[in-house]
Amino acid sequence: MKRIVIFDDDTDILEILTYLLQEKGWEVYTQTTCKHVTKVVAAHRPNVVLMDNWIPEAGGVKATQTLKSDPALSSIPVIYFSANNNIAQLAEEAGADAYLAKPFDLDYLETILSKFS
Fold first, then answer.
1. Which structural domain, as residue segments, surrounds residue 42?
2. Is 67 left (phi over 0), alpha (psi -120 to 50) or beta?
3. pLDDT in tens, 46-97
4. How far, in Å, are 19, 39, 65, 83, 94 from residue 104 at the CA level?
5. Distance CA 96, CA 104 (A)
6. What's the chain's Rg over C-alpha atoms?
7. Confidence check: pLDDT of 17 > 90
8. Cα–Cα distance measured from residue 57 to residue 55, given in angstroms and rounded to the nearest whole number
9. Distance (Å, rounded) from C-alpha 49 to C-alpha 85?
10. CA nearest to 37, candidates 58, 10, 12
11. d(CA 99, CA 13)
């Protein structure tokens, strides 16, 4: 089964994504902060991580950089997602593998996820 960890402080987004992705066969884990980001990702070993920009504690850029600097986790793809106008720049700064602008089309989310799973 494909696994995903979603970091977002918006519980409505987490609930919607959990429901939709589980319907598509994903095992979904969610976090409302990026505290202990490496520990959480290492515990679940997901196929992909979905990282919000405005996630509490360190923020999405720092959390993604932390994941990408860990040799044991750096190969796990991170999709950066945010409503920021400069999401492409933020994703690049973070070292993310892809980005997704909020609000997003669910078909497009599936297309991006299929590239990494």
1. 2-116
2. alpha
3. 999 999 999 998 999 999 999 999 999 999 999 999 999 999 999 999 999 9
4. 16, 28, 23, 9, 20
5. 17
6. 13
7. yes
8. 7
9. 21
10. 58
11. 16
Token couple for 9: 């402080």
**CATH code of the domain in which 18 resides:** 3.40.50.2300
User: Given its phi and psi angles, is residue 73 left (phi above 0), alpha (psi -120 to 50 degrees) or beta?
Assistant: alpha
**DSSP secondary structure letters along 37-62:** HHHHHHHH--SEEEEETT-TTT-HHH
Q: CA 70 to CA 56: how far, in whole Å? A: 20
- The two tokens of residue 87 are 């999401």
What's at 38, amino acid-wise? T
Beta strand residue intervals within the chain, DSSP E: 2-7, 26-31, 48-52, 78-82, 98-101
What is the number of domains present in the chain?
1
Q: Which helix (H) or strand (E) holds 114?
A: helix 106-116
